[in-house]
Amino acid sequence: MAPLLARCAILVAIAACGSHEAAVVINEPAAALPETRLPRAPGVFSPSLVTIAAVKDKAELTLGEQLADVDSCATCHPDAAAQWSSSAHSFASFGNPIYRANVERLRADLGKTPSRHCGGCHDLPLLVDGLMTSADPIPANDLRSHSGVSCRLCHGVQTTTHDGNASFVLDPTPIDAPDLGNAASIAMHKRQVTTKLDGDLCSSCHRGFLSPDLSLPVHLTGVDEPGMWRSSAWTGNGMARIDKVEQKTCIDCHMERVPATADELGAKSGTIASHRFVGGHTWMASMRDDAEQLRLTRAKLEGAASIDVAGARIVTRGIHGPWRLPADGAPITRGTIVELDVVIRNLLVGHRFPGGVLDAQDTWVEVEVTDRRGRRLAASGITHATDADDEDSHVLRTLVVDDYGHVLEEHEVAKFRAQIATHTIAPREAQAVRYAFAVPPSLAADQVPLAVTARLRHRSRSLKMQAAACASARTPEGAAFIEGARQTRDVEIDPCKAQPITLVAETRIELGRGATVTTARPAWQRIYEHGMALVATVVLRQEEPRAVLEAALRAAPDPRSRAMVSAQLGWVAAKQGRADDAVRLVRDARELLAAAAAQGPVADPPVLDAIIADAFVRLNRWQDALAPAKACTERAPENTAAWGVYAKVLVALGEHTQALAAAIRGLELNPRDPELLRSQATALLALKDPRAQAAETAYVRFRIPDEAAGLRVRCIKGNERCMRLRNPVHSLPLRPER
Q1: 524-712 belongs to which homologous superfamily?
Q2: What's the pTM value of the predicted model, to 2 decimals?
């Protein structure tokens, strides 16, 4: 029954877009078709995808004991080992009270075998030695429980795939210490430990998903740092805007070169790639009183994103006035409502910000309005730092719900059923939040100008997550692991102490008579980012970004900046079904970029073809969409979405052999992308290929759960936060001070 339903779903999904051709089976000439790309199935360590290569030489130690042995590496690499010992990688396993609370809950809910889903990346020393599924509890005073992602793991990986969930092959061959007086021995050692040291190694664990292999009834995509990065401007494959940044990899950002001591034999020109792997995990550093790791982590966060009070408008008796762009100096009238758009932009993070576990992050916005005397009149987000039950603040987080549409607050993986809203920010993307406050009727003239201050604050986990980790650590079992960390790693850990809060960004503007401009950022750029953020809003509200972007176009000072704005206006036109306008705006952008070429070479960015393709796809003008969709795959070959659109267009045109090739190319980048799996299955079905049934099964298994829409409705009906967050650009009140 499932394959039959899948056939209906696949064909109806295309035909429902208005394409009659999609329902016609084309008898194409017989030709050698490419190998299909089906998601990799778990092996002996299921549900983890980790594979251990064949053992070549018998070792005295178990593989888990070898993986946990960092001291041997430290004899020649003391700097790398010391840096690693401060990293989140080294505390990825049961010695980390946050992780232990989560994984023990999963083991209690689903069983020990499903917990190998986590073990492939977090607990490999325990996993390979059978301790994750042993009848005995995880040993609290065993080094294997406290080693996390160790030297031997990363430096022992032979190959990887883009699947995620530990999709790597580990070589179990013991790594021998080299004879420092023997050049051949040193060369052999280097070959052993440098088989797969690149971004794909990171991808194998920093892409994660939940599936029926974990005994869950649905498939859910989780963290996907490599997918976000690979499809971004940081690799030259971004398709959302005209953008230019220096290309960077995972290693460039998280393993910067640092000075090395004379004893570090891995140094090159006096430096070493830092093995601290600095990211955003301030809590793990703080609970160990690791001041240097905390300092570096906070420095990484500060300035990673920007915040701006970008626009203001006055609402008088329910009638909205025009936008004040930027917001500085907007008039203040007693008895009116002032709406303020706060814009956050991910400037420097090559994946979503915040990254990591999407449902547990705690990055939030504070906004406060004060009068000239400094007295607070209204605010939002101020109490979030101390109130675990706060739901009125804007938090950069993904909401996940259970079978009943209830929001899950403590990363209860066994209950995950659907993602309801995602408000983390993709690389170089911007997000807008609309705030409103009532100007007091009693506001005196000497209280003006008013000041509006907006802050973006970050801590590693929510207060509810911390409370759960703290409670778990205070049980006898938890206390045993705290003591085990002390004995095996000589480290004191206290998950109950207050988490550090980092100020990522802050801005201040003034409103009303006497206001001054307090920011040096160019006005056109602020208006542009405001409009860019509003493009994400629902189709029925696209006139809002259109008005803001037209103001940005008037303010833009040079051809390149005008081209940037024109491209965003092109997205608005595409969403509104104005294909001719979208084509014109793209043409304008290309002409402006050509004019800007006098200042230096300017490439034809893939966003321009992406806009045209999107405009025509929305109108089912498949033939018109073909050339720009293909151009996107040529200009942004690492962007999964480019291949998804191209494959969809080819399927709609009945070009099934080409559609199959395009889908496979995209699936090489993201093997569980549901749109690409659908295109692959549809093409094989139309070609009467016997592999179609397996492809259909894969699509059905990994598509968005059918129940997701219903769970979203349940959440909206029962939770004000769900109701608010259903709109990408939502509104929040600035509550008056009492």
Answers
A1: Tetratricopeptide repeat domain (1.25.40.10)
A2: 0.93
